[in-house]
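> forwarded from #structure-qc
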């Protein structure tokens, strides 16, 4: 826009900015005329003006492409209970995105998700919290998720003697629960 930016002015994606750089070389050092500049890892155009100690650098902040992560979440029992879903960026502990839905099989959606790898955490009262790895590349992601009631070993949506039998057989080392992944 041609006006100076204040230190608190947000930089906008997709906009072109011009940086006027004045440097004060010591002992006769100057920036060579063929020097290259990068802003956020992106090579920029530049031109000298007034004197060798001044540079004018124009750069465009790239627009951030975002995607949608959506799907259905399946849970059991109380259809009016809140199901909370979080997307946590790889390497971080705090979620970048959060949504809450109600129902036993219900759609969820996260809009404006930046590319990256996330842990999706899904939680509902009286259910085992589950985590999924979600990779957002260059397209939107469809990820159906399912959480189970605490104690529901076979994943049929009920806690009953079948689950007790499976737990007992596992405890007696007659069989393992390895095949029960709740998918």
């Amino acid at each position: 826009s041609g006006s100076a930016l204040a230190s608190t002015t947000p930089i906008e994606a997709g906009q072109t900015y011009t940086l006027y750089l004045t440097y004060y070389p010591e002992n006769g050092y100057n920036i060579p005329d063929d020097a290259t500049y990068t802003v956020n890892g992106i090579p920029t155009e530049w031109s000298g003006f007034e004197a060798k100690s001044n540079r004018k650098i124009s750069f465009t902040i790239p627009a951030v492409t975002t995607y949608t992560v959506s799907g259905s979440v399946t849970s059991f029992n109380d259809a009016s209970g809140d199901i909370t879903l979080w997307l946590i960026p790889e390497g971080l502990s705090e979620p970048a995105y959060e949504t809450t839905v109600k129902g036993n099989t219900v759609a969820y959606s996260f809009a404006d998700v930046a590319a990256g790898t996330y842990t999706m955490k899904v939680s509902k009262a009286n259910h085992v919290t589950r985590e999924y790895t979600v990779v957002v590349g260059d397209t939107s992601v469809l990820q159906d998720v399912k959480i189970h009631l605490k104690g529901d070993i076979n994943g049929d949506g009920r806690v009953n003697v079948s689950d007790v039998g499976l737990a007992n057989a596992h405890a007696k080392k007659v069989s393992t629960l390895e095949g029960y992944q709740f998918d």
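QC bot note: The helical segments are 161-171. Residues 66 and 171 are 48 Å apart (CA to CA).
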